[in-house]
């Protein structure tokens, strides 16, 4: 993070309240439920890690108990909904200047209620310097961990759990960050850690790594020589000087030595031939800015060439750079990238990490939590509680950002089940879930950010309506509005803040913010009512389908499969229709659409599934693990299937004989990332030898996976419920996507 270590404001702040606009409990969140700690103290920054249990509300569904009743009532909903408390695990990481360490430790001490351990894992050079202070303040024994082991563990963790963690830096691009899709196998790679010196480590597996080289010329060299040359003692001020300097005033270039003859050597005239070469012969004084820039280039080029040589020697093409020397500083990343590209002729890639500043703290925490085996779980970044790349927390006042950027936050939630690749992806290493990169596409970015802003009032209204018995629902909904609005404004100015910006990430951020303020499923009542109405129509729809001949029935099934997809409260064009005409139903949906299209689980998906079952096909029906808009969830699908089975012998026998299996996707989003699916689903797909994948819905089949290549046949179906997107794709509102693909031989 470039700004999180800015030193200028630290000297005046001897308490948290003086230095930031956010209250301390917004920085050290959920501290009262903290169970375990780790800390990484560097030369200027402290990174604190802690694990907490988070209590939040979840919407649970279950069938009504009809024992003792003759029949269920016609007006009775198909299932009951209850909101229950659930406890989940969360990792918190907070980064701040060492200036504030005592005040932060005091705040933590005052708010600690119960920890499961009497030990705090510590790494970094400052673990020795501040050992006594930590033990005195927190009453926890400091257990020092090896710095390099912690860095490697932290690096492995973020590469596995944060999809857009790594990026390349491209100087002339807008924006300059290009995020990489995580390779399914992150090993082997080279980690170049640039602290005071340089350590170069080859990482081969989770637990096997080797220090293969290094250099004494690193960040400490830049700091030390920079201080001698410029009389500037602060590292970040040196970087600021360098960003304003012109190195060619100090450095001797190839063209300065060879004149025009450099072209015969195949060299660019602008290459540096000798760092500081002009200072030996010139009588003039050089500016601090120019000297700092020359020094930064000299050290960055040296490190880049060294890293490149080691990468080539060990046949590695991925090199990750970390350490306090990087700090997200553009000039540093640009110079290292140029050096790697130049010396490797483009064969080795310089990669940087969004959360490189946290690697040591994450690794120290994992070392202390080994008995809990945290690596057996999958984790996900919680956008609601995390600061973005090169940004201060978006909740802060703009006028205070320079100062409040001192604190930087990352939160990660433990997911209920491990997530893995869909085994049917043709090439997992090149799979990109999202169809449009809003980071790249300025026009699309402007449209979708505005779209989400305009939809915010409706989401707030729906959230309040979902909890009619709650006295504070309106107040919590207003807090949700403010938080999500602030996130959207951050993304307008820094679209790269949370990795590649996509429609999926905007939807996920909204869900995270809703959960933050205890709105687990704002559409639960809508779904309950709609499912009840649809169940009453099921037998009539199926009877009508059975009366058709084969060809007519296939067309009708596809129309039905598409029909319920119209009922999407997340699409403004649809919600406008649904709000103005409450009687708008399944048949009206068919008539409304271009070419009669639409889909929903009971009147669309289940008749389609029933047809496949009748042909002898085994079916795995995968639904969202958690709620997102009005998509059916796995737990809801179980009840719906049970109710349909009671009416339909085909579904009944298929469930009993396990020819129809209902599973969860591992997702809580209207979109779908096929590289992060529930492990149980992946195992089932492999065991049953699935040879056709049907993906339905605008989020799953258009916003994501439109270009997904599978190694089996696939069918992607959706109704375009957004006029801007329809126009982009060359169609009209409510046009149909019906994309059948066969893999190339």
UniProtKB/TrEMBL annotation:
It holds the Pfam family ARMT1-like_dom. Residues 454-590, 594-732 form the Damage-control phosphatase ARMT1-like metal-binding domain. Activity is strongly promoted by Co(2+), Ni(2+), Mg(2+) and Mn(2+). Activity is inhibited by EDTA. One of its GO terms (molecular function) is metal ion binding. Keywords: Acetylation, ATP-binding, Coenzyme A biosynthesis, Cytoplasm, Hydrolase, Manganese, Metal-binding, Nickel, Nitration, Nucleotide-binding, Phosphoprotein. GO terms for biological process: coenzyme A biosynthetic process. GO terms for cellular component: cytosol; nucleus. Its cofactor is Mn(2+); Ni(2+). The keyword tRNA processing does not apply. Its EC number is 3.1.3.-. Signal peptide: none annotated. It is found in: Cytoplasm. It catalyses: (R)-4'-phosphopantetheine sulfonate + H2O = (R)-pantetheine sulfonate + phosphate; (R)-4'-phospho-S-sulfopantetheine + H2O = (R)-S-sulfopantetheine + phosphate; (R)-4'-phosphopantetheine + H2O = (R)-pantetheine + phosphate. NCBIfam families: panK_eukar. Phosphatase which shows a preference for 4'-phosphopantetheine and its oxidatively damaged forms (sulfonate or S-sulfonate), providing strong indirect evidence that the phosphatase activity pre-empts damage in the coenzyme A (CoA) pathway. Hydrolyzing excess 4'-phosphopantetheine could constitute a directed overflow mechanism to prevent its oxidation to the S-sulfonate, sulfonate, or other forms. Hydrolyzing 4'-phosphopantetheine sulfonate or S-sulfonate would forestall their conversion to inactive forms of CoA and acyl carrier protein. In the N-terminal section; belongs to the type II pantothenate kinase family. Belongs to the type II pantothenate kinase family. Homodimer. Interacts with PKM. This is 4'-phosphopantetheine phosphatase. The lineage of its organism: Eukaryota, Metazoa, Chordata, Craniata, Vertebrata. The gene is PANK4.
